[in-house]
Amino acid sequence: TARGIALLDTVRDRLSSNIVKIPLLGMIPAGGPVITEEYVDDWVGLEDGFVKNLKDSFMVRVTGESMIDAGIFEGDLVIASAKPEPKNGDIVVALVDGGNTLKRFVKEGGRAFLRAENSSYSTPEIVPMEELVIQGVVSGLIRTY
Q: Could you say which residues of the chain have pLDDT below 70?
């Protein structure tokens, strides 16, 4: 008898899924992320269902250990969206007094500040001296081993 090979529906769906490319920014310039070739280190392909807001999304690579208690480690890639306003408790990519960071956004008593998620830090709060600009709200994380 003739042998036929047919793809399972689940395999066919995965092969036909839409792949989108998200910019991996090497640095985030002051005033917010500017997605131009000048700042893009690489483009990362992801399934379109993995990214909530494709038009305004970008990725950054995590350095440091300030967010390890939140499950974010050095070398992880975080996906952030530049459009939504942060809610209390969101993890954000921010510009604090001229320096970029990834921290938890906290708003208490009418003031906004950032908090590191590392229990070994003696002072986890980062209160801006002059300026706090939220550049993106984290919506996803990619980790490779």
A: 1-3, 12-17, 27-38
Which sequence positions are flagged as catalytic? 66, 103
- CA distance linking residue 31 with residue 127, whole number of Å: 18
Q: Do 135 and 90 meet the contact criterion of CB atoms below 8 Å apart?
A: no
CA distances from 65 to 14, 74, 75, 128, 145 (A): 35, 6, 10, 20, 17
Q: Minimal CA–CA distance to 77: which of 107, 97, 57? A: 57
Q: Which residue has the tokens 């709200």?
A: 137
Amino acid at 94: A
Q: If 0-12 CB within 10 Å is exposed, 13-18 middle and 19+ buried, where does residue 115 land?
A: buried
Contacts of 30 (CB under 8 A, 6+ apart): 95, 98, 133
pLDDT digits (tens, 9 = 90+) for 64-91: 888 999 999 988 999 999 887 899 999 9
- From CA 36, how far away is CA 50, in angstroms rounded? 22
